[in-house]
Write a structure and sequence with these properties.
The complex is a heterodimer of chains A (153) and B (446). Chain A is mostly helical and 153 residues long. A two-stranded antiparallel sheet of chain A has the order 1-2. The longest helix of chain A is centred in the N-terminal third of the chain and has 27 residues. In chain B, 76% of the residues lie in helices and 0% in strands. Chain B contains 13 helices and no strands. Chain B is globular, with a radius of gyration of 21 Å. The chains are: A mainly alpha (153), B mainly alpha (446). The interface between A and B is large, with 66 and 75 residues.
């Protein structure tokens, strides 16, 4: 029968080994050679976009890379999706939503009116463009109707 | 209660109760918004309600864990807390940081990173607060007459929880890396070190309630927390499938996530077996209900429902849908909500000297809150699965799908009302126990 000492050794040993493997995998998957996010394309504008994204807690309603609050649409590939819907005018539509002074409310569900400046809206678009190019291991093709493949075909 | 300084736990529990009630209020704000009744939009838009709802969850649970530690550690270490005054300072500063953060969320003062919305300057205050707490607990333990495994596991959980808050404070330009390290905090908390805290509290309660030998309970405690880390650390991989990092996580995350339910199963079997083995008939049946309930519901909510969508093949479709909310609600309720309510149910009669554990109100609180939460989980599940099929399989527009599934949110609100009734009864019970007092010192039933 297992003794308390053996049980403790199992706990400490198991934890140490899995944690070391975890650190190793982290270093490996974040190394430059394994980059799937086109890290070199992160411009100052993309970074400003990310800051605006965080300062307004956009993730509190939307999702991005599948993470967020499921109350408003997924915004990975949002430009492609709106391009398809509005005849290639995706970026213009996004700009007008972000710069609008009255709440945008598709199907009655309200978004906060952010009244962004043109520069801020452009930074957001740069951020979405960068996000849209990330290799998401297949998820990019699943999220409805993330349309790059559809448009190109 | 055996030591006067344990009384400080009462106030942490009281803060917990207050924040739990507030959390539910903000949950209703979101529920109503989802069926089109968002009249509060100008004051509490959805993203505010959401941030408040999840952050209140974290703070009421933390406050409950801290209360549990202030109650358990003196008894395990067999001495008074090193400083009661500092413990009160810590309580007040925790409440102040919490309130400032919550109020700030209503004025766009936040960081917009799911679960870690607390803005950076306040993060430093959180760190200072937690350091003070840890200092008090660890010094008490160090100076104590004995160092039990239960106390060590509980303290280790609290210490690691504090350390793991730090990766969440690192700044990154890339959304991918940002998200990657955000999960170091969130996942390694809830599927790692918080389970140490849960295990520590569970073992303390089982020792007290069942009378089974400490050595036996603590041996199995090691096995369970061992299984938790063995599966949970690499199980973090299930958050990395589709956020823009290497495919290796699909394999690692898939395999180790599939093992995660085992730890919860072991915990449930352990609790039930200790109960059956125990010959002691402790009069506090309510505490026993909550304790066994926590072990069993956490297996269903965290273990089984988590497993239901951590296979990479399934998660490809369910990632970023309401299926996550389904799992999240029952998991947090079972694993952490119920264990905090269990330790409160056990400690309260001992702190106040009023033994209200035969009350119908207490039983009704238990059953209504559990039935309500299970109903809510089913409502989220049905909505989530419908969303997956309509949106991801048939390519329907997001808002059109939201219209189709809004009926399930009516059911959600009805079930949430049952849940809330249970919680209100629990809070009334808490209030009826009165304040902690020194007369309770001699009356504790161990």
């Amino acid at each position: 029968m297992l003794s308390k000492k053996q049980a403790r050794a199992f706990f400490l040993g198991g934890t140490l080994v899995t944690f070391l493997v975890f650190i190793g995998l982290t270093v490996y998957s974040l190394s430059l050679s394994q980059d799937q996010s086109n890290h070199e394309n992160i411009t100052e504008s993309v970074v400003r976009g990310k800051i605006i994204w965080e300062e307004n807690n956009c993730m509190g309603c939307h999702t991005i890379l599948g993470e967020g609050a499921y109350y408003a649409p997924e915004l990975t590939k949002v430009i492609d999706r709106l391009n398809q819907k509005y005849d290639g005018q995706g970026e213009e539509v996004i700009k007008s939503i972000l710069m609008s002074e009255v709440p945008w409310q598709p199907n009655g569900r309200k978004m906060v009116a952010y009244s962004m400046t043109e520069q801020e809206a452009e930074d957001m678009i740069a951020f979405f463009e960068w996000i849209g190019e990330i290799d998401l291991n297949g998820f990019d093709r699943i999220v409805s109707p993330l349309a790059k493949d559809k448009i190109n075909n | 209660m055996k030591y006067k300084s344990q009384k400080v736990a009462y106030w942490f529990f009281a803060l917990s109760m207050l924040l739990l009630v507030l959390q539910i209020v903000y949950g209703f704000v979101m529920g109503f918004a989802r069926i089109g009744l968002d009249n509060l939009h100008d004051f509490i838009p959805f993203n505010t309600a959401r941030a408040v709802h999840t952050n209140l969850l974290v703070v009421w649970l933390l406050s409950g864990f801290m209360g549990a530690a202030y109650y358990i550690i003196p008894e395990e270490a067999q001495r008074e807390l090193v400083s009661v005054k500092l413990a009160y300072v810590q309580l007040i500063s925790l409440a102040v940081v919490g309130v400032v953060a919550i109020v700030g969320y209503h004025f766009n003062y936040w960081e917009g990173r799911k679960f870690l919305e607390i803005p950076r300057p306040l993060d430093f205050l959180v760190v200072a607060n937690v350091l003070l707490f840890l200092g008090l607990i660890l010094v008490t333990l160090f100076k104590g007459k004995r160092r039990t495994t239960t106390a060590l596991v509980l303290s280790m959980g609290l210490l690691f929880a504090a350390l793991l808050y730090l990766p969440g404070m690192l700044p990154f330009d890339s959304q991918v890396t940002d998200s990657f390290f955000r999960w170091w905090v969130v996942h390694l908390w809830v599927e790692g070190v918080w389970e140490l805290i849960m295990g520590g509290i569970l073992s303390f309660l089982l020792i007290k309630l069942t009378g089974v030998d400490r050595e036996v309970i603590e041996k199995w405690l090691y096995v369970i927390v061992g299984l938790t880390f063995l599966s949970g650390v690499l199980g973090t991989g299930h958050h990395y499938y589709y956020i823009g990092v290497n495919k290796i996580w699909l394999i690692v995350g898939g395999i180790f996530s599939a093992l995660e339910p085992l730890a919860f199963l072991a915990m449930a079997l352990f609790a039930v077996n200790m109960y059956r083995k125990g010959e002691k008939k402790h009069p506090n049946k309510l505490a026993l209900y909550w304790t066994l309930g926590a072990a069993i519901v956490s297996f269903v909510g965290a273990g089984l429902l988590g497993f239901a969508h951590t296979l990479p093949q399934t998660n490809l479709y369910t990632h970023g849908t309401l299926v996550t909310a389904m799992h999240g609600h029952l998991a947090f309720w079972g694993a952490y909500g119920m264990i905090v309510l269990a330790i409160i149910s056990y400690a309260l009669p001992n702190l106040t000297g009023r033994k209200l554990y035969q009350s119908t109100r207490g039983r009704a609180a238990y059953w209504l809150s559990n039935i309500g939460m299970i109903g809510m989980t089913v409502a989220f599940g049905v909505a989530g699965v419908a969303q997956v099929y309509l949106e991801r399989k048939f390519g329907m527009d997001f808002m059109q799908v939201q219209g189709e599934i809004s009926v399930h949110f009516v059911v959600l609100i009805l079930c949430a009302t049952i849940f809330t009734t249970g919680i209100v009864l629990y809070v009334i019970d808490f209030y009826k126990h009165g304040k902690p007092n020194d007369e309770a010192l001699e009356q504790t039933i161990d």
